[in-house]
């Protein structure tokens, strides 16, 4: 393992948390999981996006900052690697989709104050899946408030993520997970494990699964 801090990102239902668990177990790494269930505005947001988007995004930003700040400042002598199932910049990407222009402008000012205080990942693993696959995974995991998520909303998030991946300055391992099965297909997981032993250029690097 060449990386001390790895972040896994992707659209809703891409399989971020499942993969974070698998990698954490394999490498005996410290695991940071997004505590989305703690956000009281989340179910309300899916019922009324316009009314609850701003408090939803503010709550997420505050909680993500607090969690990352605390965990990344605390060194664990027995675990040199940390794996997270979200990137702090996720705050800005979702806010860009969910907030009207004036609210987003205010939100971005707050984000720009907070973001420099956090450690950026050494490697970003980005999981890309078609909307149909995302919808299938969302249905399968059966979180009640997620069942109303539209394909259009997922597409907007996908476009925002794709634009960010093209432009950002972090080493990124881009994986098409349309047919991936890290849990059930040992070859898929092993290909990723081997990939994490290599160095990459800044920007997008594509990993093709066997």
Automatic annotation (TrEMBL):
Lineage of the species this protein comes from: Bacteria, Pseudomonadati, Bacteroidota, Chitinophagia, Chitinophagales
Domain Deoxynucleoside kinase: 6-196
Organism per entry: Hanamia caeni
The protein's name in its UniProt record: Deoxynucleoside kinase
Matching Pfam families: dNK
Any one annotated GO CC term: cytoplasm
Gene Ontology molecular function terms on file: ATP binding; deoxynucleoside kinase activity
Record keywords: ATP-binding, Kinase, Nucleotide-binding, Transferase
Chain sites annotated for binding ATP: 10-18
Keyword ATP-binding in annotation: yes
Domain of life: Bacteria
InterPro entries for the chain: DCK/DGK, Deoxyribonucleoside_kinase, DNK_dom, P-loop_NTPase
